[in-house]
Amino acid sequence: MWDERYSTDDYLYGTEPNDFLREHAALIGEPPRDVLCLADGEGRNGVYLAGLGHRVTSVDASAVGLKKAARLAEEKGVALTTLHADLTEHEFAAESVDAVVSIFCHVPAAGRPHLHRQVIQALRPGGVLILEAYTPAQVPRDTGGPDTPDRTPTAAELDAAYAELAIELSRECERLVVEGRGHTGPGCVVQFIARKR
Ligand SMILES: C[S@@+](CC[C@H](N)C(=O)[O-])C[C@H]1O[C@@H](n2cnc3c(N)ncnc32)[C@H](O)[C@@H]1O
């Protein structure tokens, strides 16, 4: 499905980073830091962070998306590592990164407990998780996001899954999300930031 969606010359969500990430990227710390960009698709967020000087690995299940991410990195003159993996199964090395960035990573509910555990495992002490995703309230809207609530987390789910981290921000809100052809207007999102103790 995603390979097909990404099989166009343009970038579905544009080439500019997500606003919430841009606003909070400084929390990752002075570059270079090791950063995992989950479900990074065509790479706009990973390439942005690499441009700040971080060592970024973009993970996605779409080979077509990752190829475009690599092309975007090359065009911008930055280094980007790509990893083709299913996040509902993949295991990350323990304490291997300083930040995990998860922007509109919408995997099925059944796979999310595994993913949440992997995020906690991958972070080094002091490492930060920066996450924005659509909530179930977005599903009936036509401005982007999954067409089933099963793929949308809530703040309550994240609060519970990451209770052992220091949660710095956890809120559901509506904001204008305009990102390429894929995200085209007001959206109901959860914004979440937590740091490993
Ligand atoms: C809405 S797009 C967001 C892409 C990117 N984060 C952005 O904001 O531009 C969702 C991405 O999740 C990826 N994805 C969906 N299920 C996945 C899974 N189980 N493992 C890895 N990636 C997955 C898709 O391939 C797609 O690139």
TrEMBL record:
Example GO BP: methylation
Record-linked Pfam families: Methyltransf_25
Membrane spanning stretches: none
Organism of origin: Halomonas shengliensis
Keyword Transmembrane helix included in the entry's annotation: no
Keywords: Methyltransferase, Transferase
Domain Methyltransferase: start-end pairs: 35-127
SUPFAM superfamilies given in the database record: S-adenosyl-L-methionine-dependent methyltransferases
This protein's name: Methyltransferase domain-containing protein
Molecular function via GO: methyltransferase activity
